[in-house]
């Protein structure tokens, strides 16, 4: 499948593009800034310019699947949490419906399914992610929502714990998150489901495989 | 009808309680802070404590209708826009469904139906209001959404322009907004509709009356 990576320049997004290059799929890296293009061209990955706040519909031409991995990050205000994390994702879902995309994999966040339990400073972010996840789930698209625990920059291990609900918070390397998102693109048992994700004991290729 | 006023201590909310006292309905003023109670008791209005961020389900006992007029206001960050204006309203809708409330009138904002056209500093707020309005509209509740123009503190005139879409921005006194919300509670032709609202030429009692 040709897979549009929204948020390709993010810390997880870069891993996703690389993992897709190593897979049977073909990435299209969507970035906002022309300066962000050369790094992906060096990898041999197709790139497309798109801005979640302004417009990115053109990025969808010829696309079979979408991985949404964009986020406004910790350095901007909560206004951007609404405009990027929530509304950018909602627009991405709308475009996917419009273009008949076959698969939509959402990078969410641990506890986005229970934002009321989140810590004070994070609760608004969890609600924004929650709204986007709910919008995707009721969109009619073939979706998978992945809610990873605390992200680290450690090298990937390829060993994870993926379950519809994991009670204990845990960490996971961004590289493993990216590999999981790419893996789940073509796992039938992941379709129309939501999962928590942390580091674990199971080899990724065995996850949901039985 | 017994009408729960959520955000009774706000600038529009105070007018709503007074207008309800003068109407055939009975207000229940929901406020967050015990210090806000005496002003409503002096009016003879029933009050109930409830916090949109913590919990307010108890406020719904015996309630027939809800007017949602709460807002985080301009002095707090956009995190509160998510937690109060968006998520508070969504919880208010959920509770109304749970308690079988017959009417839900939402105080929204001009342009909340087209947030992408809003000015930069306001767009995130308009999206938050939009999400809340959309949630209400798809809730199955008997709703009315009212999107007033720029609010002023001028005395009310009782003369308005209410229409599903008004192209020109305009002002309207908060007192007239409050009177309109109360009026629309019992106007059958306002049910399951959304309206823009500014000052105008029509006497309120003639609006949607023919």
UniProtKB/TrEMBL annotation, chains A, B:
Organism ancestry: Bacteria, Bacillati, Bacillota, Bacilli, Bacillales
Protein name according to UniProt: NAD-dependent dehydratase
PANTHER family named in the record: FLAVIN REDUCTASE-RELATED, UPF0659 PROTEIN YMR090W
Annotated TM spans: none
NAD(P)-binding domain location: 7-186
InterPro entries xref list: NAD(P)-bd_dom (IPR016040), NAD(P)-bd_dom_sf (IPR036291)
Organism listed in the record: Halobacillus mangrovi
A Pfam family this chain is assigned to: NAD_binding_10
